[in-house]
Amino acid sequence: MRVSDFDFQLPPELIAQTASAPGESRLLVLHRTTGAIEHRGIRDLPSYLRSGDVMVANDTRVFPARLLGNRVPSGGAVECLLLSRVDPSDTSSCETWDVLMHPGQKLKPGARVRFEGGGGALDGEILERRFQGRRRIRLCPTSGTVAEVVDAIGHIPLPPYIHREDTTDDRARYQTVFARERGSVAAPTAGLHFDTALLAAIDDQGVERRTVTLHVGYGTFKPVRVDEVEQHQVDPETFAIDADTADALNAAVSAQRRVLAIGTTTTRALERAALRDGHIRSGQDAADLFIYPGFRFRIVGSLLTNFHLPKSSLLMLVCAFAGSTPSPTALVDGRERVLAAYREAVAQRYRFYSYGDAMLIV
After folding, report:
1. Distance CA 81, CA 70 (A)
2. CA 309: distance to chain centroid?
3. What is the pLDDT of residues 113-165, one digit of tens each?
4. Mean pLDDT throughout 332-339?
5. 66-153 CATH
6. Which CATH architecture has domain 3-62+170-361?
7. Where are the domains of the chain?
8. How far is the C-alpha of 121 from the C-alpha of 131, rounded, in Å?
9. I need a labelling partner for 148 at 20 to 30 A (CA). Which of 126, 296, 336, 340 fits?
């Protein structure tokens, strides 16, 4: 498959720069078996669910991973995006992190930086030079813990297609109602559409609700730089599924009850956990699964997601799901159905990407 086959035209003004209020997003519904499209609102979601369905969301929590500071002693401005902690078992006050630094080319091993604000300061030393601006850094707080200082002085790392600085409102709005486990540099954005009223309406339908944890990394924004889809590799992201959730999902699949995945991150976690034999195993693992058309879905029976970037791995996942109809004998071109839905969404002026509207595939 050619990556260029997953391209579409999107007017820049349809890229949402701010979030709608929870529960106020529009909802495009795509029926896999027929290709039919409906235009609804996110509060209509419960009408597409039935008693016995299991809804699964990602409960990861975004932390303010973007740090702004200066080189020591020159004072030159630096920016640091915290990606992953190297040794979480280290109990000292200092922590070692893999990060993305700017300007990376000037920050060699031994270089020192300082990040500070009204809530404290972090002193950093570059330990290792890696690739494409990646560095390994040792961070030491002047008081408290690294996490406490990061929470006080850090910025929410908004996606690169949101062309504004983060605000205090983003700290609350770029966080889902499910958020519990700290660890993501980007929100699992399908979850941003929910509020307590919508969840109550879903509960009233007799839907069982579960969560998994997948910490979204910077790789979610990684462009596909190859010509052929099959040559692309996704960056692995850590996920965890507890035993009760695994048992509930295995029971649902065995009874042929539908599993609704909230977002592509949840989909990747569930399908990776069941990749071996269709049976979900509890525990922690790495979601290194690249899902593109032709993939056989073992768990997910319906998908709620946002509208994704052209030629992105997330769009390919959505196309793969749209082509895997509930009937094993019904073969459809999921790519063409999704791109037709996207063209309709553009014509109807839906809002795209992280702070945009939602799409339900049933």
Report:
1. 14
2. 13
3. 999 988 799 999 999 998 778 999 999 999 999 999 999 999 999 998 999 99
4. 91
5. 2.40.10.240
6. 3-Layer(aba) Sandwich (3.40)
7. 3-62+170-361, 66-153
8. 27
9. 126
